[in-house]
Amino acid sequence: MKNTFSALKLTLLCLIFFSVLYPLAIMGIAHFAPNKGAGEVITLNEKVVGFQKIGQSFTKDNYFWGRPSAVAYNAAGSGGSNKGANNPEYLKIVQDRIDSFMAHNPTVKKEDIPAEMATASGSGLDPNISPIAAQIQINRIAKARSISANTLQQLIEANIQKPLLGMFGPSTVNVLELNLALDKIK
């Protein structure tokens, strides 16, 4: 009986702490985050067009394409495909992505396609690509928009996010922000 009463007290204490106090503390901390913890939204003409940390699908030739998503960029179902690297179904999906990329980017050689343009990220929500993955798309976009390749190269360089403190992590480019900047070019 003594152990049962102790277990009930501990259960009640944990219930109050993890169901009430901890969530309230996290909500309080979130109020000091950008946008009061509601995420870092990207707006255009006072309308929300996306979130800085969640990727979106771009498939038209006149836009930069982001990394493929195994969950169709659904933040509620974040996750990878869980298929192994030798899974025939997975290999077909990757090959289809490579074939599609090459069909839309005929000047690119298969061996030059960055892996991130054919494989989904672990979360399926990756909003960023490497500068090389953006640069490899320049010819397609230049042709589709009648813009010089040099202008697109400068646009990419202006949108590169450097590593933290210049050494932690890779340089990246946020695809949504890059495409919004692309739309501003006349």
Characterization of this structure:
- With 186 residues, this protein is mainly alpha-helical.
- It has 2 domains: 1-38; 40-184, no CATH class.
- Helices cover 42% and strands 9% of the residues.
- The protein contains 6 helices and 5 strands.
- The strands form 2 sheets. A 3-stranded antiparallel sheet has the order 3-5-4. It has a two-stranded antiparallel ribbon with strand order 1-2.
- A hairpin with a 2-residue loop joins strand 1 and strand 2 (47-51).
- It is elongated and about 80 Å long.
- The model has no long low-confidence stretch (mean pLDDT 89).
List strands and helices in order, with pairings.
Blueprint: H1 2-30, E1 41-44, E2 47-51, H2 88-104, E3 128-129, H3 131-135, H4 138-145, H5 149-158, E4 160-161, E5 172-174, H6 175-184
Antiparallel strand pairs: 1-2, 3-5, 4-5
What does the average pLDDT come to?
89
Helix content: 40-55%
Number of domains: 2
Give the percentage of residues in beta strands.
5-15%
Main β-sheet description: 3 strands, antiparallel
Quickly count the helices. Answer: 6
N-to-C CA distance:
78 Å
Unreliable stretches covering 5 or more consecutive residues: none
Order of helix and strand elements from N to C terminus: HEEHEHHHEEH
- Total number of β-strand segments? 5
Q: What shape does the CA trace take? A: elongated
Q: Trace the largest sheet across and list its strands.
A: 3-5-4
Structural class: mainly alpha
Whole-number radius of gyration? 22 Å
